[in-house]
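Why run this: before we spend reagent on co-expression, it is cheaper to look at a predicted model of the complex and decide which construct boundaries make sense. The entries below are exactly what would go into the expression plan.
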Amino acid sequence: MISTKVTVVDYRAGNLTSVCKALRALGCDPLVTDDPSTLSAAEKIILPGVGHFAATERLFQSGLAEAIQRRVAQGVPFLGICVGLQWIFRGSTEAPTVPGLNVFPELCERFPDTVKCPHVGWNSLEIVRPSRLLHGLDSGTHVYFTHSYRAPTIQATVATTNYAGDFSAVVEDGNWMAVQFHPEKSGPAGLKILQNFLELPAC
Amino acid sequence: MLTQRIIACLDVTAGRVVKGVQFVGLRDAGDPAELAERHVQGGADEIVFLDITATHEGRDTLLNAVQRTAERIFVPLTVGGGIRTLEDATRVFDAGADKISLNSAAITHPGLIEEIGARFGAQAVVVAIDARRKQPNQTEVVSPELAEVYINGGRKTTGKRVLDWAREAEQRGAGEILLTSMDADGTRNGFDCELTSAVGRAVQIPVIASGGAGTVDHFVDVFTRGHADAALAASIFHYGMTDARTLKEKLAAHGLSMRLPC
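The model came back. Tokens follow.
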């Protein structure tokens, strides 16, 4: 049993069941919350999210954004999944008036019309530098994606994926970590990534 | 590189997996959760459960199977059959499904696509289209443009053209199209590549081809001539004729992009 207090942030964006089931399979008992005050005890924060970027507006309105920021500044590791990755960028053209957390100042954009959209299915990771999240995984590993918007490749990118050009599949900068794909749906490779996150030292 | 997906489909009724030919003559094939796990271990990229009776009692058994399955498999799980309202969909998602597939209900109440998409994300809504180019007991096959959409397990025509309905489903926010050729389903004579390709050209969202899988060459055909993004099969996996891994290795040898090792 992993004793770390993992808090999964619920902001009514899609379905948290799969993420929680994967965490339980790894021996952890996640706390699901939409209450900013409970985040002050979190030792790990996971922000899932599927659907429209506009749904993240609730994170600022509810005070969850501030609570997340405060806790990560205190040294708590953060893992964003899918829209959770896009949210820690400046924003997305999907909802231009809704700000992101701006940990990374770049903007997420839709895939060009030259490819099928959404990008759905198993695509490979190209690991561009060592990271804690991808420890033990090799380039060429396939993970499951389903999204229409993507983050550009930046300094914090630790793995890229190619679909109409390279985009950020995994970013990691200190305690800010995020993946564009769904580790909870990516078979053994995805579970390994979640386990790497769970095994990070809590603050 | 994005790989082409191999999806194992389990038709479920009264809590058991069954397989028939063109929707009749069902045979028992086992426990859904157990079979789903075996398919994933065998290399399947995704699992689809289709509740083909969708009766009230059958519903709870299905949800129980979804729950047990979602605890043991960590690849995408789609559930279809009998989802008529947002509440039905919510129960299926809460049990652990990642996507739901809408068929008849999307035809009679197209707004459901938007409604479920708004709550769970468009990527979670698959619109399943049962298509016919040939009337039962007739030999004439019409062009893909004239293919018709059938509902109620393939028993009732809607008068809608497949390509028009696929475009409408996309506009309403469907994340994928699951296209079943009723003419080919259960025959093991190959997918309808012509129809799959026509639907793929009509929409920007991924198309999953279904119906007719029997040999490795059928899959090669549907990915090359049919331009399918994914192919779905049931019986060739159930009875141990092949597993997804063996199939994918053979497809990779034909130059197709597959998730391997898996």
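The CA atoms of residues 124 and 142 of chain A lie 4 Å apart. DSSP finds five helices and 13 strands in chain A. Bring this page to Monday's planning discussion.
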